[in-house]
Amino acid sequence: MSRTARPRHYLMCRPTHFTVDYSINPWMEPAKPTDAARAVAQWERLHALFRELGHTVELIEPLPGLPDMVFAANGATVVDGTALVARFRHRERADEAPAYREWFRARGYRTVVRAEFTNEGEGDYLPVGGRILAGTGFRTDRRAHAEAQRVLGRPVVTLELVDPRYYHLDTALAVLGDDEIMYYPAAFSPESRGTLAALYPDAVLASDEDAAVFGLNAVSDGLRVVLPEAAVGLAAQLRARGFEPVGIDVTELLKAGGSVKCCTLELRGAPA
Ligand code: ARG
User: Fold this and answer.
1) Is 45 helix (H, G, I), strand (E, B) or coil?
2) Whether residue 168 lies in the annotated active site
3) Which of 19, 76, 185, 233 is 20 to 30 A (C-alpha) from 105?
C-alpha cells in the first residue's frame, strides 16, 4: 500500500524545568534521579526530527514549578481551529491550563474554550477520521466526552482504560492515518475492546513488550511514524504495512510516564 505524508502543525514545550518530584502515575518515582539536561537533549532531537520531516513546530514557554508541562499533548485539543483547553485531574498540573489558554489567545485563536469537566487534552482525545476517540477511567471525566463532542463538533467514542500504567488514551492507542490506528487491547475494558475491534478490524495490535516501552505513544503524519526506539516489534509491524517508523530515544521523559506523543500537541486547522 502506498502512503503519503501530510505536513503537520505541532505545539511543543521544552523540558527546561523537567524533574519528577511528585507521583501521579505508576511510572513516576520521585526517589529515582532525573537529568533535566538529558531530557532537554532528547526533546531537542525530537523537535529537530519533526522539522526535518517537514512539519511546523511552535513552542510554548515552560514555566518553573510545572515539571510536566513538557507534555504539551495534555494542554488542549484543537480541531478545526477551535481549542478546547484542558482541565487537569491533579492539582500538581492545574496551573498548566491557564498557560495554554493564554498561548492560544495570544496566537489569535478566537474560540478558546475553558472546559467545564476534567479532561487532559490529547492525552485522552484522539481525533481520527471524522470522529474523536476519547479515553476515560483515570484522568478525563466521562462527562467531558459530551462536552468535547459539542465544542469540537465531531462524534466522540468513549473508551475505558483499565490498567493504571496506561492512564491516558495516548499511552495505549495511536492514530496512524485517516482511519487507521494501533493499540494495546489489554489496556481497555472488555466492552471498549469490542468497540475498537468493530471500528478498526485491521488495527495494528501491540505486544506487552512494545506497550511497556510506550511504543503506542507515537506520532504519525500518515507515512512516517515517530515512536520510542525500543518498540522494535511495533516498528516491524508498521514497516510491513507500508509505514516508515522512525525510532527515537526519549527515555528520560519516560521517567515521568511520557514519550513522543505526550510531547506533541497537534494544531488542526487555522485559528477559528
Ligand atoms: N507525568 C505526566 C502525568 O502523569 C505525564 C503525562 C503524559 N502525557 C500524555 N499525553 N500521556 O500527567
Assistant:
1) helix
2) yes
3) 19
Condensed to tens digits (0 to 9), the pLDDT of residues 3-13 reads 999 999 999 99
- Give the helix/strand (H/E) hosting 136: strand 131-136
9 is catalytic: no
User: What sign does the CA torsion over 192, 176, 114, 151 have?
Assistant: negative
Query: Do residues 238 and 204 lie in contact, with contact meaning Cβ atoms separated by under 8 Å?
Result: yes
Round to whole Å and give the CA distance between 267 and 272: 11
Laid out side by side, the sheet with 131-136 consists of 125-128, 131-136, 156-160
Q: Are 86 and 76 in contact (CB under 8 A)?
A: yes
28 CA: nearest ligand 1 atom: 1
At 26-55, the pLDDT tens digits run 999 999 999 999 999 999 999 999 999 999
Ligand 1 atom index nearest CA of 123: 10
Cα angle 174-137-86, degrees, rounded to a multiple of 5? 70
Cβ neighbors of 197 (< 8 A, separation 6 or more) are none
